[in-house]
What we know:
The chain is of the alpha/beta class. The protein has helices at residues 20-29, 89-99, 119-135, 150-155, 196-204, 219-233; strands at residues 5-8, 15-18, 37-41, 46-56, 59-69, 78-83, 104-108, 143-147, 162-166, 184-188, 208-210. Strand 7 (104-108), helix 3 and strand 8 (143-147) form a beta-alpha-beta unit. Helix 2 runs parallel beside helix 3 and helix 2 runs parallel beside helix 6.
Amino acid sequence: MSAPKRFFVDKIERETLLTGEEYSHAKNVLRLGEGDEIVLLDGSGKEYDAIVCRSMKGALACNVLGERAGDKESKTPVKLLVGLLKGDKTELVVQKATELGVCEIGIFSSRYSAAYINDNKIERFRKVAKEAAKQCLRSRVPQVSYHETLADALNSCGGYENKLFACEFANESEADLRTLKGSAALVVGSEGGFTEEEFAKARALGFAGVSLGRRILRAETAAIAFTGIVTYLLGDLG
Ligand code: SAH
């Protein structure tokens, strides 16, 4: 039997109602009903074993049987900032970064980013993060935010111990990644890359330029690879 399906709810009560999209998915796609075991998540990091006890119009009532701490979250916080990408590339990056365990994702517009953004897209990114979190058994959904400027995005990284800026025109890395320890904020540009001024601004704010090698990677490759490298070095993929 496959592992019990996971659903996010706002609040856990002894009898918790599954409503809205989570309900539709449970009822219409997974065909869950009375007696089925599920796991409820409230984004706090805990997991709750529950059993569907009643099917109602627009809701499934679930009895919560027990709780435990989720054990899939990274010990060291990693935040990924990525330039807004074209088509569905941003969604791809949000999905993969969630699987790799980041706790925050920031999407930003910058001088050379050409993609279009609206509130629906931001909601869509949040939904992608939630689905990915469920699929990879996380108990928290990374927070997804949008920054209108690169400066805003960079300024949102105050609490991070390491600030790393993947720069396609940096010849060598200013930080020794092999000895990396502690929380990390990573920045990757959009298809158009960064300007010299943007890099200078980031350095003034304490970001170290990082080279990802001699080849120019596509933005989505750079974002996913950089996140994977850093989470590995911080001991989260072992
Ligand atoms: N249009 C640019 C390339 C942008 S690549 C050009 O033609 O030069 C998109 C982003 O991926 C970059 O802004 C950077 O953050 C990252 N990136 C790609 N290759 C990289 C490399 N070799 N080193 C560091 N960052 C890289």
